[in-house]
Amino acid sequence: xxxxxxxxxxxxxxxxxxxxxxxxxxxxxxxxxxxxxxxxxxxxxxxxxxxxxxxxxxxxxxxxxxxxxxxxxxxxxxxxxxxxxxxxxxxxxxxx
Length: 96
Fold this sequence. Notes:
- By secondary structure, the protein is of the alpha+beta class.
- It has a single domain (2-86), classed as Alpha-Beta Plaits (2-Layer Sandwich).
- 33% of the residues lie in helices and 25% in strands.
- The chain contains 3 helices and 4 strands, in the order E-H-E-E-H-H-E.
- It has a 4-stranded antiparallel sheet.
- Strand 2 (32-39) and strand 3 (46-53) form a beta hairpin.
């Protein structure tokens, strides 16, 4: 899954803290193969999440974790607009 997130400038630091904690915990989930967070090189308020799960059920399980719910609550007031999500089917990955 690819997620494009734009945050309010005044919420950037809080967002980075919240998403970093969520990503670290997510990478420990058995069904999560990969969870990266990147910041746009030209727009400091835009972030990209790259999430890979073994299957759809693992993504569903991720959304029920305490760390995801904590992130969702913490970031709700920090977003400048709703996140844009794109699902993708893995064609190749050295992750498996």
